[in-house]
Amino acid sequence: MNSKISSAYLLKNYTYELPGLSLKVQLKNNPFNLEPETLFSLALRKNKRRRFLFVSKVLGKHIPGAPFLPLLAGAALAIQCFNKLSGLEHDQTWPLIQALKTGQQMQEAYESVAQKPLLNLPGQTLFIGFAETATALGQAVFSLFENAYYLHTTREYIPCLQAELDFREEHSHAVNHRCYPAQADYLSSSERIVLVDDELTTGNTALNIIRAIHRQYPKKNYVLLSLLDWRSGEHRADFRRLEAELDTKIHTISLMAGEIAFSSPAKAENSCAASRDPQEISDLPNPELDDYPEYKIISKLKEFSFPETIPVFSQDSLGDQNPIPYLKLTGRFGLNTHEQQTSWHLAQKLGRVLKTNRQGSVTLCLGTGEFMYFPMLVSAYMGDGVLFHSTTRSPIYTNSQGGYAIREGCAFRSPEDPGLINYMYNLPENYYDEVFVFLEREVSRERLTPLVRMFHDKGIPRLVFVICLASTEGRFLNDRKKPSAANSSPFADGML
User: Fold this and answer.
1) For residue 349, what are the CA distances in angstroms to 89, 340, 342, 362, 378?
2) Do residues 254 and 308 both lie within one domain?
3) DSSP string, 153-191
4) Domain count for the chain
5) Burial 395-422, CB ≥16 within 10 A → b, else e
6) pLDDT value of position 486
7) Lowest-confidence range among 381-390, 423-432, 474-483?
8) Does residue 146 lie in a domain region?
9) What pLDDT score does 6 carry?
10) Are 309 and 259 found together in one domain?
């Protein structure tokens, strides 16, 4: 991907050339003077509704990076929200932005604002992060505020609960969003709703959820936070029309804003020959994998237990039910400020436990789907040489040309729902010494086969599954032979 920059008065114009597509970006608002390459690169997505994708470098999703980087991005967005709504400037604004720009002293900058919630807005506030990409971003923003709640939308289907909100994201590969707040008053008692997404292109998803909320719990103030805001003048007018229709105020705040325009050659579909589909990973058992040299599962942590769980079951797209409860600390069912602080201390403790059991100098920590924030926070305390990102449901074309965001990719059946295809991007061969895969809930070993095969084929010698919640009897995990004495380790089938 090639890009060029030109200045036009106070505006900056960028042109990005992708296979079969030319994209122009005009920056109109850049409060922290961030360079675009700090925040994103671009790729082509397999979606006829929207062919291109701004691939975030600071989100911890598609591109691996230092785990403190997405935490800093969330903190920067939180501080920008505070600065805008309060009319004040937080005293850690510029040290934090400098760390985000340079990648230096990231832990110190993050902890300077995260050790206790320092930001406060008048009245109780509910933060809502959008699944799946912005679940971690939303929680990272919320974590810095007092007198607040957090809830993220989900694509999970929980048949024993009635969704409090149900709305659509039309341009997405997975359009349905649901909200299952454990306490109904999260929505009813909050004076302000803050919606958090990684990017706005049209803003239609935000308008859909605002309408859904307003039908039941009308508010006078909504805030929409995003890393990037590319809404056109017409899309911004849609927001003003909704404000008038609902007699409410919608604030929009971002780290970078502007407008985009794109064009395609007449035969664009045929001009993407260099772009490829992600490599398909088979879920058929491979006898070779039974002898994977370091294939371990942590399902029970000695003297380590998670706080409150949500005792509900889910149902996947094949109709199979998983009776294992969910972690409350993810925010899928709602979280308050005190519970968030507890989860932060818990993540530090678990990170330090896992740090002592690392055996490599280059370690990948991998979140799965919507389960991003807690693994990211754990990874941040596992020591130097750790990179983090997550699996995703987003189908993206890969391309090895310089500057293109997604160089390689793998497609595999989701361990949580084998009826769905998940993807993992930018996993180079023979690069990592080990991978720690974080799963919120126990799944069968059979469902882990595609992941095991993928890492095996990529030449990664050691693989550890960290399963946060498992059945009491471990009934899903006990269908594999115990490791031999030669392979025994503190990770041997589950007990640290």
Assistant:
1) 32, 14, 11, 21, 8
2) no
3) -B----TTS--SEEEE-TTSSS-EEEE--SSTHHHHS-S
4) 3
5) bbbbbeeeebbbbbbbbbbbbbbbeebb
6) 32
7) 474-483
8) yes
9) 37
10) no
For residues 169 and 208, the answer to whether their CB atoms sit within 8 Å is yes
What is the token pair recorded at 437?
A: 């895969």
Q: Are 451 and 384 part of one and the same domain?
A: yes
Q: What pLDDT does 403 receive?
A: 85
**405 in any annotated domain:** yes
What's the average model confidence in pLDDT over 352-377?
A: 96
What type of residue is 80? Q
Which residues span the domain enclosing 294? 279-318+336-494
Answer for the pair 272, 243: CB distance below 8 angstroms, yes or no. no
Rounded-to-integer distance, Cα 64 and Cα 428, Å = 11
Q: Is residue 269 part of a domain?
A: no
Claim to verify: residue 291 and residue 238 sit in the same structural domain: no
pLDDT band of residue 65 (cuts 50, 70, 90) is very high
Question: Which tens digits make up the pLDDT trace of 285-301?
Answer: 765 666 665 667 776 55
Please give the torsion angle defined by the CA atoms of residues 74, 79, 85 and 91, in that order, rounded to the nearest 10 degrees: 170
Q: What is the per-residue pLDDT for 56?
A: 97
Question: Which amino acid is it at 276?
Answer: R
Q: How far is CA 231 from the centre of its chain?
A: 22
Q: What is the CATH number of the domain that holds 457?
A: 3.40.50
Non-local CB neighbours of 166 within 8 Å, separated by 6+ positions: 176, 177, 178, 179, 212
Check whether residue 258 and residue 286 sit in a common domain: no
Closest CA to 420 of 174, 136, 134: 174
Rounded Cα distance between 112 and 117, Å, is 10
> Nearest Cα to 421, choosing from 453, 458, 388, 395?
395
CA distances in angstroms from 162 to 63, 179, 370, listed in the order given? 35, 9, 20
3-state secondary structure of 139: helix
pLDDT digits (tens, 9 = 90+) for 34-59: 999 999 999 999 877 788 999 999 99
CA–CA separation, 402 vs 399, rounded Å? 9
- Neighbouring C-alpha atoms within 13 Å toward the C-beta of 151: 23
Say whether pLDDT at 414 is over 80.
yes
Higher pLDDT, 116 or 253: 253
- The model's pLDDT over 341-358, given as tens digits with 9 standing for 90+, comes to 999 999 999 999 999 989
